[in-house]
Q: What sequence folds into this?
């Protein structure tokens, strides 16, 4: 069930499930804040990149978006893209500089796997929430198809073959301009559950991302729209552990916090 209506700013589905992720975020907001219009909700997107696939579509929905990222070129790009969107602002810096208790929701999407201390970043981000605020975290499956596919791709040096044989995409938009920041964390569901508990958070909503999303898939099956649609839907019928990534809606767990 969709809680917030779609707007003119849609994200086409791709092999990583970005369209599915946007729908998850919208519906999680609707579940957590029933009856509240988007314009009444302040949302902090931590590690926002250039905002193309999440922050800016949410701003078009009417949410009051603040994006923060330490990578200056990504923020410069985001500011350019948002120049005619008054309810979206972007800050180059660390989340620790953002005011505490100022936001209804905080998003960390495809961020925790890139940092050395994910618990510290998650704690610093949730500090920005007011008492009844929520967090949304999306991460890749550390032992899923994406990581396995990527490892094979690197070991066999397939990029050289792709450069020679594959037709370049007519248009490619990345969620970040920081292409050199790879994964340094490999998450499992159990590890994530421990991480959330350590930050006094509990899961109230969760979904699977796409099934197949690595670079080998990107230059083969992901060229076909029919596969893209199937790839996003099939994980809804499979065990969560088989997905290439996961989406979580989180609330503060007062019982854990009191301990």
A:
């Amino acid at each position: 069930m969709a809680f917030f209506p779609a707007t003119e700013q849609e994200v086409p589905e791709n092999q990583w499930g970005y369209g599915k992720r946007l729908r998850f975020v919208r519906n999680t907001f609707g579940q957590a804040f029933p009856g509240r219009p988007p314009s009444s909700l302040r949302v902090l997107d931590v590690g926002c990149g250039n905002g193309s696939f999440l922050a800016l579509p949410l701003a078009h929905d009417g949410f009051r978006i603040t994006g923060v990222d330490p990578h200056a070129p990504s923020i410069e790009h985001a500011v350019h893209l948002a120049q005619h969107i008054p309810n979206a602002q972007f800050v180059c810096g660390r989340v620790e500089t953002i005011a505490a208790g100022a936001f209804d929701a905080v998003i960390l999407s495809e961020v925790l796997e890139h940092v050395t201390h994910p618990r510290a970043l998650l704690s610093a981000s949730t500090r920005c929430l007011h008492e009844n605020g929520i967090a949304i975290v999306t991460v890749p499956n550390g032992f899923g198809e994406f990581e396995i596919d990527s490892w094979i791709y690197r070991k066999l040096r397939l990029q050289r073959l792709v450069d020679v044989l594959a037709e370049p995409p007519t248009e490619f938009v990345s969620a970040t301009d920081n292409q050199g920041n790879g994964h340094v964390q490999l998450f499992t569901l159990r590890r994530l559950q421990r991480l959330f508990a350590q930050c006094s958070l509990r899961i109230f909503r969760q979904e699977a991302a796409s099934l197949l999303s690595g670079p080998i898939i990107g230059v083969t099956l992901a060229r076909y729209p029919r596969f893209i649609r199937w790839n996003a839907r099939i994980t809804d019928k499979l065990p969560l552990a088989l997905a290439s990534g996961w989406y979580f809606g989180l609330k503060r767990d007062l019982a854990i916090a009191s301990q």
The chain has a mean pLDDT of 91. The longest helix spans residues 18-32. The first strand starts at residue 42 and ends at 46. The chain has one domain: 18-258.
